[in-house]
Amino acid sequence: MQIKPLSGKTIVVTGSASTTTVINEIERLGGQAKFCPLIDTKEIIDGNDQKYLTDVNQYNWLIFTSKNAVEAFCKKMKRLGMKSSQIQVKIAAVGTKTAELLEDNDLSVSFMPSVYSADVFVKEFPIIAGEQPKCLFVRGNRAKDTLKNGLPFAIKEWTVYETRENFTSIKPLIELVHTTTNLIIIFASPSAVDVYAKHIAIDVGWGQVKFASIGHITAAAIKDYGAEVTYMPKEYTMKAVIEEITKREDA
């Protein structure tokens, strides 16, 4: 009987959402999958939501850098009775999941950077957008200032969701680190890394497990805490990181 590449490995997904597809793929490859979300997100409902949506077509571009921002934006559209056909502005997206969710809601994506990262976006987007486009960045409360500081023109920002620490996963993950060998933890955002550092690493340290990163910004956050990143695929997706782990472990 052939041994599967992830046999004996336990892989932890720490993001705010876990898809059945990811869990099934890990298990298909022989691994044990654990979902321990260290962050969760919640839509911010604000009195200015109506005005932002009413004024949206005054912009040349809407910018989304996360799936969570798309989800919150679409909830506002539905709540306030706005249809996707009424959105006449061009849309820029960072990440395949971000773009897919936009398209699923009949919001056509006109631009994506060659690498799914904000610091690449600020280099490539101005070539497409022109000199002084009017842009609305639909963001979360913990989004970094990469776009605001990196783009050669001013942008308007609309914070539509907040990222919060998920305390329910902390004790189970500490216990998992203490009791499990061959443990691999996947981080998809610096926010999840920060929660791990604040609440988990102070108990278990950084040396007992291997870390996988989706994106070089997340990898930098891990390294800033003095830890090593063992797996980081060139493509910044969950599918790619599972493939990278499988390739390395099967070598």
Automatic annotation (TrEMBL):
- Catalytic activity reported: hydroxymethylbilane = uroporphyrinogen III + H2O
Q: Which UniProt keywords apply?
A: Lyase, Porphyrin biosynthesis
Full protein name: Uroporphyrinogen-III synthase
Report the EC number(s), separated by commas if there are several: 4.2.1.75
**Which InterPro entries does UniProt cross-reference here?**
4pyrrol_syn_uPrphyn_synt_sf, 4pyrrol_synth_uPrphyn_synth, UROS/Hem4
Q: Which Gene Ontology molecular function entries are recorded, alphabetically? A: uroporphyrinogen-III synthase activity
Task: Tell me where in this chain the Tetrapyrrole biosynthesis uroporphyrinogen III synthase domain is found.
Answer: 25-242
Gene Ontology terms describing biological process? protoporphyrinogen IX biosynthetic process; uroporphyrinogen III biosynthetic process
Q: In which pathway does it act?
A: Porphyrin-containing compound metabolism; protoporphyrin-IX biosynthesis; coproporphyrinogen-III from 5-aminolevulinate: step 3/4
Q: What does this protein do?
A: Catalyzes cyclization of the linear tetrapyrrole, hydroxymethylbilane, to the macrocyclic uroporphyrinogen III.
What the record says about family reads: Belongs to the uroporphyrinogen-III synthase family.
Which organism encodes this protein?
A: Lysinibacillus composti
Instruction: Name one matching Pfam family.
Output: HEM4
In terms of superkingdom, the source organism counts as: Bacteria
